[in-house]
Amino acid sequence: MNLQATTSQTVGPYFSIGLTRRNKVDLASPGVSGERITIVGRVLDGDGNAVPDALIEIWQANSHGKYAHPEDDQKKPLEPGFDGYGRIPTDENGRFSFTTVKPGAVPGPNGKDQAPHIAVSVFARGLLRRLVTRIYFPDEPANTGDFVLNLVEPGRRGTLIPRKVLGQSETFEWNVILQGFEETVFFDCGM
Amino acid sequence: MAKIADYRRPISGTQPNHLHPPYVSSIKRAPLKPLVQMPHTLTEITGPSFEREVVDSNACDLTRQHSGEPLGERIIVSGRVMDEDGRPVPHTLVEIWQANAAGRYLHKVDQHNAPLDPNFTGAGHTLTDAQGGYRFVTIRPGEYPWQNHYNAWRPAHIHFSLFGPAFATRLVTQMYFPGDPLLPYDPVYNCTADEKARRKLISLFDLESTIPEQALGYRFDIILSGREATPVEG
Questions:
Q1: Does B49 sit within 8 Å of A69, measured CB to CB?
Q2: pLDDT(B234) > 70
Q3: Hey, are the CB atoms on B124 and A18 less than 8 Å from each other?
Q4: Residue A82's CATH number
Q5: Range from A28-32, B61-65, B226-230 carrying the lowest mean pLDDT
Q6: Closest Cβ–Cβ partner in A13, A128, A191 for B170
Q7: Is B202 near chain A, with CB under 8 Å?
Q8: Closest chain A residue to B220 measured between Cα atoms?
Q9: From B39, which residue of chain A is nearest by alpha-carbon distance?
Q10: Is residue A184 part of a domain?
Q11: What Cα–Cα distance (Å) separates residue B155 from each residue in A59, B22, B57, B197?
């Protein structure tokens, strides 16, 4: 059978009615091993205005670099209580914040491990399809050899790497700029 | 680790471009730089699982979430979630949200001058069964005006959110109703170049799932990305 994936449509302005129920902004429940990190930021449009009706979803490996998914057959431990999924809405100022553990390295397509990263989907009114991007980490030596990061022109890689917030250890600032000069790098991930 | 089989990329024209100027909200929110092509890695072929989630039995019946019955025409919306090879996608989370029968959302941003219904929230969720089947009982949502252009009205629709087996298969879409006269004027519905792809967003009236004396049935099958053939390790 040869079917075609259903056409994507925008989440529109009212998605919170259906999707808030499953919001999850803290993935690092007590007992989950790994370095706690908080990522804060804003979603901004092409005029630099806040996007108050955006939704960010994240997907990541645990601190050992293992995904809670049957297709990850690495011999690394799973973490009970850590499923790697988060759903984070923006507030009226376009701000979002989530806490998780820093993911470990996972295998990459070139036989080398990928640098630690978090996969991100962005949904909003005005977006007919989700946007796919990634969060990497500053001061991470593995970034240099990361397969996916190296697909991005050097001048734009910084949009995928949050800044450490001064005075707040383990807090990182990362903004999603939907459009414009400092536009965040978005990937073609298929759907 | 074995080489990874990507999920299939959409056929040209079957998915919207990010920038679709008739949909005015896309103009300042769509990225304008080209997307960076990437292969799927272990990150993209894995994804969250909701299989163990306990689903409240009222969650898939939007007419039974309050003390009274909502106003409007009761309907059954059911279908199958499959991949592009027609294989069922079992135990995946399906979330829906919609306006009430008067075309009003229970949301502070919705200022449409139509009544709220104290017996209708407009949110539901369920997990597909082993054959990829799902079923909701709800009421037919009303059409409503919006500010996109002069005299703009959204056709009646229900929002659907699905995950499938991987990060790469995530889909949010909208289901429409057959014969809706507003469809030709709606920039969201008309966002794809491929008309056949668009038409698949329209549910089919379904006598089989219609319950006599009770509710009309509409069928809406949802297709998630299929898998490329697994590469043979050489």
A1: yes
A2: no
A3: yes
A4: 2.60.130.10
A5: B226-230
A6: A191
A7: no
A8: A6
A9: A189
A10: no
A11: 33, 16, 29, 17
In a domain, A76, yes or no: yes
Q: Which of B12, B116, B172 to mutate to test the interface with A (most CBs of A within 10 A)?
A: B172
Q: Does residue A78 sit within a domain?
A: yes
Q: Count of A–B CB contacts within 8 Å?
A: 258
User: A36: domain range?
Assistant: 16-177
Residue B95: closest C-alpha in chain A: A18
* pLDDT tens digits along A40-52: 999 999 999 999 9
Determine if the pTM surpasses 0.80: yes
pLDDT digits (tens, 9 = 90+) for A17-26: 999 999 999 9
Picking from B79, B80, B76, the residue whose alpha carbon sits closest to that of residue B211 is B76
Task: At A122, give phi and psi (nearest 5°).
Answer: -120, 125
- The C-alpha atoms of residue A152 and residue A39 are separated, in whole angstroms, by 22
In sequence order, which ranges of chain B are alpha helices (DSSP H)?
42-45, 195-199
Query: Which of B1, B18, B42 is the best residue to mutate to test the A interface, defined by the most A CB atoms within 10 Å of its own CB?
Result: B42
Q: Which residues between 206 and 225 in chain B have a beta carbon less than 8 angstroms from any beta carbon of chain A? A: 222-225
Q: Which residues of chain A make contact with B107, given a CB cutoff of 8 A? A: 13-14, 16-17
B159 is catalytic: yes
Give the count of domains, chain A: 1
Average pLDDT over residues B5-32: 96
Residue B4 pLDDT: 83
Interface predicted TM-score (ipTM) over 0.90: yes
Does a structural domain hold residue A69?
A: yes
Cα B85–Cα B90–Cα B95 angle in degrees, nearest 5: 105
Tell me: domain B24-224, CATH 2.60.130.10, correct?
A: yes
- Residue that is written with structure tokens 């806040």 in the block: A50
Q: Which residues contact B59 (CB under 8 A, 6 or more apart)?
A: B124, B125, B126
